[in-house]
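Wait, mind explaining this?

_____
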Amino acid sequence: MFRHALRGGATNRNFSPWAAPILLQSRPRAWPTYKAGFHELGGDAPHRNAESDSHSASNSSRRSHSDHILKNETIYALSSGAGRAGIAVIRVSGPGSLDVYRSLCPSNPPPKPRYAGVRTLTDPGDASGASILDSDALVLYFPGPKTVTGEDVLELHVHGGHATVKAVLSAIPRCMLPRAKIRYAEPGEFTKRAFLNGRLDLAQVESLGETLAAETEQQRRAAVRGTSGILGKAYEGWRQQLLLARAEIEALIDFSEDQHFDESPAELLTNVSWLVDGILGSIRLYRLGSQRSELLRNGIRIALLGPPNVGKSSLMNQIVGREASIVSAEAGTTRDIVEASLDIRGFLCSFADTAGIRTTSVVASSSSSDAVGGAKASSPPAAAISTIEEEGIRRARNKARDSDVIIVLASVELASDGTPWINYDTETLRLAAGAQQFIVAVNKSDVVDRDVLRNLLRDFAASVRMDQEGRLSSSSHDGDLVPLAAAAAEPPLLAISCRAAAADAKGLTDPGGIQALAEKLAQSFAVLTSVPSDMQHLLSVTERQNQLLVVCQRHLEDFVTEAARRRSCGTLDEHAVSAEPDVVLAAEHLRLAANCLASITGHGDAGDVEEVLGVIFEK
């Protein structure tokens, strides 16, 4: 039984970080067989039948519910958006679709299936046909079951004026339907009928909802990939393999006393574990895809960090394109978190302007470690950090720790003698090193010429590099752990000028370098959300699916743990207690895991399935 399933398994994929078995791993030996087949034993294994019957009952329930709908109710609704438009699309689905057409167009035969026909729609209450609802309407008829809902479907493309649409919608329930009732569709009911009739699986339904809710290009791309049905087929494939595995185990449970089996329960569970290990590897990949897809759906969180008065609020306003933050020459004007959402190169982003971080009482001095460029700058001591500013700094640190991308902002400053130096804060670099992606930008680059700026940036990059290496070497002593990859990597360093960008100098394609910064951000976003080209459908794994995969993974891991139990609790004690794996418990772990997969695709029989379906379809 298993041999046929295993031959159809996918092969391993050896690329990082996605290197993991997609479905199955190779087995060290042949699967166990027993000398008497199921039919020779007098019937199939009862427990396997229970699972099959449960799934069949679930499908039968869906079919019977669908048959009840087909026999009794026809639904209709406005499928296009509300409001004035050139064309409005009204959809009718159910056994009475053709009767609706005959009532609205009594003098014309139905159009050829799947061919458009121009018709005049009349009021079904006017026997003379003189009361015209809409002239030159486009009518299409799709006989089931190969339709969007699996039922007979009628589409009326009418003129999109409010009065016309209202008149047609009001006339449809007055149509004479001898075979069925007609009513206005509930939210998502067309999609629900498509699911009940097997035209869509639940993963495709969720992707359809994501497609309708997509606001950015990347959200649209991720949602469209999920409508292919690949996810549902994968989940159902795993479920079927677990059913086969469970059938083998439960056959051993039911018939081990009457029939001879080639291998012991422990050996059978060990071989089944190879199958489960392959599914676990695939689940981990799907969960990783879910994590990356959540960034596309919910938005990538970006924090602007830096000392006071380096231009964080100005940069925020330039990127967002409006005055989201207050800009002032006075340092420390931002005390709370200011957030704004926007679309950058198709990625939904949430920008957060934070309070300036100060770790010393002097912002710039000749002895400060934050002064770069060899300047002997003399600045008056900064004011003491107030309670309000301290709270703002605390919130800035927390926001940085919760962000996916951090922009560390520094600025070119001039000392009292005109010597340039770069003002930055070392703590902001430490916080940025803990983020998945970070960029260092130096503002006010227009206050010095290019040659001086180039030297300043070179010295600044060297200072940042030494600071990272110093933190990495001392991390084992002070407990301040910095990710090795982040500490060793050269941070992207960009020179920008918010003042030049605001001036919008003529003849410059990117005054101030803001567009270059946006492009660098888009590259960071692509890294955060990237998946292999042949696994793009993983970006359509939803949070609901991920939560069920977590539970499924836990049950499968419990199965592997049970299957790996030692055959005895000790080898030296002559009275060692036998510790053979519990095959009944192992089979139960497989059953629970298969139920989780069934719930993902909508085949589950749990009590809350109807509630879950209702929430999904209404989207």
Summary: Residues 265-298 form the longest helix (34 residues).
